[in-house]
Amino acid sequence: MQKLMEKPYRNPADLQLALIRIYIGLNFTHHFAEKFGLLGAKTYEEVVQYFTAIGFSSIMVVISGLCAFAAFIGFTFGLFTRFAAIGTSLYLLIALFSGRHYLAGFSWADHTSGIVINGVEQTVYGGWEYPLFWSFICLSFVLTGGRKWSLDAHLRKCSSAIIRFLSQ
Question: What is the pTM of this model?
Answer without folding.
Answer: 0.83
